[in-house]
Design brief:
This protein is mainly alpha-helical. It is built from 24 helices and five strands. The chain is elongated, with a radius of gyration of 39 Å. GO terms for molecular function: diguanylate cyclase activity.
């Protein structure tokens, strides 16, 4: 029963960290809160009451998770039957592997509490097959730790060692907490298997690692383990020092189960040191504990100590009474141990039968494979001829594929501007036209930004066409990087560019145009080998209900852009009908509808 409570502690740690660690909105966030406060009775009960009112709105995964958390709360309260009901309901919903794993581990814990070890082992077997399907290494490590705890509860320490080693083999990529638990379980298995030197080294390693990383409760358990190794070796003085150190480490946690265990161990170590009064003091503390299954192992040690003390004092009547109690407790614990051993051996036998069946199937498969190989040998000559024919076809196919790739490559080159690498005018208008129709069908706004680099001819004349090309490429790079993924950016002419903006209203388009104007103005030209300023004049237009294609938008954006030129350049102009009414503005538009 002691191991069961340790198992329950490990379970609670597993639950808090195993499912949906990140905070999300809505019900997932509330379920995260419930998970975080599952150990707090008042907060968790309050959250459960609120969530019950909204559970009809949950999706399947949320519903299953809520049922598991309710089952966890009942398990903490010791209401095992009620917990099983919640877990069964969650399992019926066929949730994700993550939640299924949690359900099975809870059920196994409950069956251990009921001493139904065979059912616990059946669930462990099922869970073992599930865990191998998990791709998340961290979750796999947590599940291995949980399985080690369950096997520890039924005293199957070979299996405990096996699963602890599996966690160790996962490497340092897993969490420090799981590494700490694995080191402790490995040392415990060595102690219970009687490999005392390995156990001593293991407890020292787990103590140092867990203390260094802030897991002080596991550090206390490791110190207790070191004391138990020394007690087994008969080194009572060393054992006593370790037990006192462990007691001091446990007290801040008020972990009474472990503290009571330390009292029982101290009674033994003091008896070994012949400090009779101290041994009697700690033994009597343990004797006064309630007659609960979790205290039986402690009381067994204490009654034996008191029997020896009173026997040495010559008080044979009291010695006999305590020896009778010792025998009674030993018998009860032995019966429970036998039940665990029988269940474990039965599970191993059934697993062995399954392995034998698998071996028979493997032999059948080998026979079938041999026959298939013989048949294959007879067909080999035919395949050689077929291979030659096939090889010729492959060569032709590769040739056709190369031609297709080349064709696509040339087609792609035709779609992009060779200098800047962005779309050319024809391609951009085709793509943007489709985007405009799609946007219009949703009754959303569509905007166009056109801009022309100011005094570009003067730059070409003063600094050469190489510098002009550098400017065009730099402007294309800067704007392309700043534009959104759905926008279409193209070079329309020598120094003229256009952006097509789906789902964008006039205000947003103006903000974007101002941003792009600033980006162009801030370009460092000294990297071209010359120092000069770059600016651009922008025109912005937005779709109206009368627009049936992009042409009117381009026309209006072009007019607005040339209006920016008239206003002194390096500015953004939103298209207004008044601009078009200006005859000079209209005539200067290169894209006036004819």
């Amino acid at each position: 029963m002691q191991t069961f409570k340790l198992l329950l502690l490990a379970l609670l740690t597993f639950i808090v960290t195993s499912v949906a660690a990140a905070k999300v909105e809505g019900f997932d966030g509330l379920l995260d809160d419930l998970e975080n406060f599952i150990l707090d009775a008042d907060k968790s009960n309050s959250l459960i009451e609120n969530l019950v009112k909204s559970q009809h709105e949950f999706n399947l995964e949320q519903h299953a998770r809520f049922l598991v958390l309710q089952g966890t709360r009942e398990l903490i309260n010791g209401k095992y039957q009620s917990s099983i009901v919640f877990l069964n309901e969650a399992e019926k919903l066929q949730p994700s592997t993550l939640i299924k794993t949690s359900i099975f581990l809870h059920k196994a814990t409950i069956f251990v509490a009921y001493h139904e070890y065979q059912q616990a082992l059946d669930i462990i077997s099922l869970n073992s097959s599930l865990v191998e399907k998990l791709k998340d290494v961290e979750l796999k490590a947590k599940t291995y730790i949980r399985l080690a705890g369950l096997y520890s509860a039924i005293q199957a320490f070979d299996e405990v060692k096996q699963y602890a080693l599996k966690v160790v083999k996962l490497g340092s990529g897993i969490s420090l907490k799981n590494q700490c638990h694995a080191k402790l379980y490995l040392a415990v298995s060595e102690l219970k298997l009687g490999i005392l030197d390995n156990a001593s080294r293991g407890f020292e390693a787990s103590s140092q690692f867990c203390r260094l990383n802030g897991f002080l409760l596991i550090d206390a358990m490791s110190i207790k383990g070191l004391g138990m190794v020394e007690l087994e070796k008969g080194n009572y003085s060393n054992a006593n020092l370790f037990f006192i150190d462990a007691l001091l480490s446990y007290q801040p946690f008020q972990y009474m189960l472990e503290i009571n265990h330390i009292y029982a161990l101290l009674s033994e170590s003091y008896l070994g040191l012949k400090k009779i009064e101290k041994a009697k003091e700690y033994a009597e503390i343990v004797i006064e504990l309630p007659d609960e299954p979790s205290n039986l192992e402690f009381k067994k040690r204490a009654t034996k100590v008191l029997a020896e003390i009173y026997n040495k004092r010559g008080d044979f009547e009291l010695a006999y009474q305590y020896m009778e109690k010792y025998q009674g407790i030993s018998t009860a614990l032995l019966d429970d141990t036998k039940a665990k051993a029988n269940a474990y051996q039965m599970a191993k036998f059934e697993n062995g039968e399954k392995n034998r069946e698998i071996n028979l199937l493997n032999k059948d498969r080998e026979l079938y494979t041999a026959k298939a190989a013989l048949t294959e040998s007879k067909r080999r000559n035919e395949r050689m001829m077929n291979t030659l024919i096939f090889g010729g076809l492959v060569v032709l196919a590769i040739f056709a594929l190369v031609m297709t790739v080349q064709k696509r490559k040339y087609k792609q080159l035709a779609q992009y501007d060779a200098l800047t690498g962005i779309f050319n005018r024809g391609t951009a208008q085709n793509i943007a036209e489709y985007s405009f129709i799609k946007t219009a069908s949703k009754r959303e706004m569509f905007s166009v930004i056109m801009f022309d680099l100011d005094h570009f001819k003067r730059i070409n004349d003063n600094y050469g066409h190489g510098t002009g090309d550098w400017i065009l490429k730099k402007v294309a790079e800067v704007i392309n990087k700043a534009s959104r993924s759905d926008d279409v950016f193209a070079r329309f002419g020598s120094e003229e560019f256009a952006l097509f903006l789906p789902n964008t209203d006039e205000a947003k388009a103006k903000i974007m145009a101002e941003e792009y104007r600033g980006l162009i103005q801030s370009i460092e030209t000294r990297f071209s080998g010359h120092n000069f300023a770059i600016t651009a004049s922008f025109g912005v237009s937005t779709s109206s209900e009368d627009d049936l294609s992009l042409d009117p938008l381009l026309h209006r954006a072009d007019i607005a852009m040339y209006h920016s030129k008239e206003q002194g350049r390096n500015c953004v102009t939103l298209y207004k009908p008044e601009i078009e009414q200006s005859r000079s503005g209209y005539q200067k538009s290169k894209m006036a509808l004819r």
